[in-house]
Amino acid sequence: MKKLRITLIIGFTIAFTSQLYFNFLIDGFRLSAAVIIYPILLITYRDINPLHIALVTALLVFSVRFGILLVRGSEVVESIYTVYPGSLFYMFYGLIFKLNKTDSNRLFSKTFTSILMCDFISNVFEVLIRAKFTLINNDFSYFFVLFMIAAARTTIVLVILAIIREYKILLTKEDHEKRYQNLIMLTSSLKSEIYFMKKNAESIENIMSNAYLLYERLSMSEHDDEIKNLSLDITKDVHEIKKDYIRVINGIETTLTNEIELSEMSIRDIFYILKETTYKTLEEKKSSIYLDFKYEVNFTTKSHFQLMSILRNLVNNSIEAMDLSKNNNFIKIYHKKNNEFHTFTIKDSGKGISSQNLDYIFNPGFSTKFDFNSGDLYRGIGLTHVKTLVNNHFNGIINVSSDGKNGTEFEIKIPLAKMEV
Q1: What contacts 227, CB < 8 A, 6 or more positions away?
Q2: Which pTM value belongs to this model?
Q3: CA–CA separation, 213 vs 248, rounded Å?
Q4: Closest Cα to residue 57, out of 34, 90, 29?
Q5: HSE-up of 252 (CA within 13 Å, CB side)?
Q6: Rounded distance between C-alpha atoms, residue 219 and residue 170, angstroms
């Protein structure tokens, strides 16, 4: 049904555009725009048999022209004799087109020759029918004129086909570029997710080790067996979670072109992952916060898990401290380097920390944040974890300043030897 619908559309298109014409050479012979459109449509819809298109087109051209002549008051027989040669032109054109297997993908010279033959031979055929095959010697000079007309129309057809093909190539190229960009973004997103999954896998390993250590110590103590078995069950459960986590990570990695290398990472990549995942979190919250992450010099570190954990905890704290109804919220992370330290400054436009709370924010369990939706009080572990990593893992220093109104600023100094590869 689809091919029939397209065939009818082509037929009607040619039938009506063939009315844009002027008479030429002999009575009833027309030069029309339809002869330029006809081969373009035949080539464009080459999956449809050109003989079917030619037959339908010939019938519709005959019907339209015959109907117009009758409306104008012409006799039936006279009208038939006037219009049928023009209808046969399109039938003959389609037959030659079919025999030549005309295709715009062929060489330019072959396509030109094929369309030229269709046009010229069909025109000669129509002229001979209208002249009842009784041309006098002078009339044969018309064939040269027909040839030149056919050449001109064929040139126009090829120019239009070339424009269409270049346009399709441009659309295809744009589509491929868009798909490639989407693939790159998908790969980057997957690698970001793998990064945090591997980071969590490492944390799960530490939890499992600590849980088993707890079990061993309980086993050597006088605690009852129920507590000992509970600690062992926790160890087993954490071990199962770790195995499942690793399976998921391996499954995602097999879909990527290159496995993400996590033995070391540059500050550029750390900032990129942190920025992209933060924006994703903000999209889920339907919040708009300006992020500005800048580094003075790109360097590589093996402690990227720990550095990411520090920065991500501080960024999350900043988001939680924001008045999301405001339009000028921001989080800025600036990195500088001197001869002794890598210095990270994390500044936000949140509600700030009151002076009486500044001395307690790193204490385990201290929190001023409350979830009004669930009624839960935040556990206050994030900043404790940050300080532990800065002090114990990096041998660094962390300072905080806030006036309780205009945001908070953390400054972290990490010795070069503890940070760089």
Answers
A1: 218
A2: 0.47
A3: 27
A4: 90
A5: 19
A6: 72
